[in-house]
UniProtKB/TrEMBL annotation:
InterPro entries: HATPase_C_sf (IPR036890), HATPase_dom (IPR003594), His_kinase_dom (IPR005467), HisK_dim/P_dom (IPR003661), HisK_dim/P_sf (IPR036097), PAC (IPR001610), PAS (IPR000014), PAS-assoc_C (IPR000700). NCBIfam families: sensory_box. The keyword Kinase applies. It catalyses: ATP + protein L-histidine = ADP + protein N-phospho-L-histidine. It is an enzyme of class 2 (transferase). Residues 482-536 form the PAC domain. It comes from the Bacteria. One of its GO terms (molecular function) is phosphorelay sensor kinase activity. Its EC number is 2.7.13.3. SUPFAM superfamilies: ATPase domain of HSP90 chaperone/DNA topoisomerase II/histidine kinase, GAF domain-like, Homodimeric domain of signal transducing histidine kinase, PYP-like sensor domain (PAS domain). It comes from Marinifilum breve. This is histidine kinase. Residues 554-771 form the Histidine kinase domain.
Amino acid sequence: MSEVVNYKISSSILNKWQDVLNLISKTFNITNLIIAQIKESNIELLIESDSCNEELILELKEYLIQEKKVATDKEICSEELVLKNPGKKNYFGYPIKFSNGDLFGVLCAANEEEMKFNAATRCLLAEFRKIIESDLRVLYQEEMNKFFLEEYKIENQKLVEQLLRSEMKYKTLFSTSTSAIAIFETIKNKSGELVDLLYKDMNPANEKFIEITKDKAIGKTLLELFPNTEPEWIDYFNSVTNDFKNTNFYSYHSDIGKFIYVDSFPLSEEEFAVSAVDLTDQVKLKEKLSEVENRYKNIFYGSSSVMMLVSPENGLIKDVNDSACEFYGYTKRELLTLNIWDLNIAGKVTVWDNIEKAKTNSKTIFKAKHRIASGEIKDVEISSGVVMVDGKELLHSVIRDVTERNKNLLKLTKLSNAVEQSPASIVITNIDGEIEYVNPIFCKVTGYDIDELIGKNSRILKSGKQSAIVYKDLWQKISSGEKWEGEFYNKRKDSSYYWESASISPVFNDENSIIGYLKVALDITEKKQIEAKLTHALLKAEENDRLKTAFLANLSHEVRTPLNGLLGFTDFIGDVNLTDEERKEYGSIIKDCGNQLMSIMDDILDASLLEAKKLQINVESIYLDPFLSGLKSLHTVEAEKKKLSIKLDYMFNPNFEIHTDKGKLLQVLNNLIRNAIKFTEEGEVLIGCESLKDSVLFYVQDTGIGISPEHQKVIFNRFRQIENHLIRQHGGIGLGLSISKGIVELLGGELWVESDVGRGSKFSFTIPKSIVK
């Protein structure tokens, strides 16, 4: 510890500390303020406030020594010193340190009663500690170096200015306090008894409190301003000045017209301060509460509703009214021996949970089952909330018997759920056809929300596609009390149409008058669609039979033609008189007839495999540049026979590669190219290819006869070729495009056509760049 500990503190510094200490003590009514110096294991009291209780200060000093607070830096050297209270004492303070961090002592406040040190008090004590530590720092420098005397004077002047600023802060706190504070000077008679009080100062809150400005009050006495001041006030203030101790009391002041709580404390032998709080509203509230409590008791005991008071602490029934005794079948004495869970069959845990909820929410309603004295179980609803009765918190519970209501509600719930969950649409209207109720399935079928239907006329569903005779017959029957059954073709919210089979009946009241109508309907749209599909399928089957008959007739012709050529030229080639050139020509014809016959058989086989979904895929790598070049070469001779040019249209890297079934890709392109050459008399055939993101686009474009829009819809169907009289002359069995479409879809792609009659056709298809098997 620093050697400065042994240096004597000058009287001027001690006097300054004493003045500040007294100022803080008077301003904030802190009676016991001390500055103590710690020397080794002892505490030396340097200064204390004028109002200090010597016994209390000695007790604090003894406590610090006994508890060895001075022997450790852990608590007393912390930023804020808050000591555990011995007995009922309350201490608060800050450590005082030298500039090098060594401990000098403590600035401490003590009080006999519990005292809460607010932020303002803590702030001022902390600031005062800084002033003390600044003085110590100057003292340390003065002892170390006498040459710094001038600097000390400058620093001391700053501290004086700081003290003045602190005093201004105290005055600011006084003037801005929300409590009404006044400072009085005593006026005593010759015998030393207090007879009146002279106003010396007051804050703005006090001006508002007494409704007299400070200028008019200063210099006047209490009895001059308020001549009817109750004598007990003077008696209380007399004890403040004579006994020099704090006094507080509660009284009504007739001149001011308020119930006031007064706290007074001495500032000097001649002056004391008074702090006043208006309790008028609280007193009136208390009177009102008493009135309400009496009214509550009258309602409680006289009510026909079942009521009881329950302790939230132990669940005991504390009070009941006569209606409760009648409902439960117990006498009042018997009920007051029970806990609430003795009635509630849910058990103790559930009841405690409900009690906790009721304590925090005054609008809590519980549903429960209570067992009455006869053993019968009753359904009840309990409304519980906290009330004050004779100064104690109790739970006020109103119990309603809802047993019969619940039985009726269960019946209604079953009926309501049956209607709500019905698979049939249910609509209720008034006698004018305005909708009053619809169930959820009706909204699902029509697409309307309930709010869009309620109040609307049922005509909102009319499609305009049904005969008025139907509606006329409907209204004639139901308005005369009869039931109507039939079918509607109605319109949904999204303007789509639907069929329903409906039964509409009138609803009668007790006087047998019609008060509305009930419609129960089933959506039969799907049924109608199935019927339409069956009709379409029947027509389709009939059409297929016709097409197959025509196909077989055409197939017979298409097979017979190459077969006749094959047989005929086989006979010719055996003639010994043929030249080599003729024999070679006949052999070529025989080969062509065989290939044609084989092609027909392949088409029939592929068609059957596709239909049976048994056509296999063999994936391999294909470099498109040589593949397309070879494809062109394959058909060049055939095209040149008709004086047609055949061209390729693609732009990509020669090494561009795809992974698919080469044979089936070749089969599709061959079919399309042959058709293009077959149906083109002049012009050209263009074979194109384009790389897309994940797929490849192929197309075959010609300048042939073209295809009409109506035929474009059916050319991919089997056997359809034979119906087109414009192309029948070109031969074929009508399976090529159907097979091509099936293969493209098998490869994961899509085939389509774009065509104008007389201008040509363009067949396009896409397939993935790589097929994952």
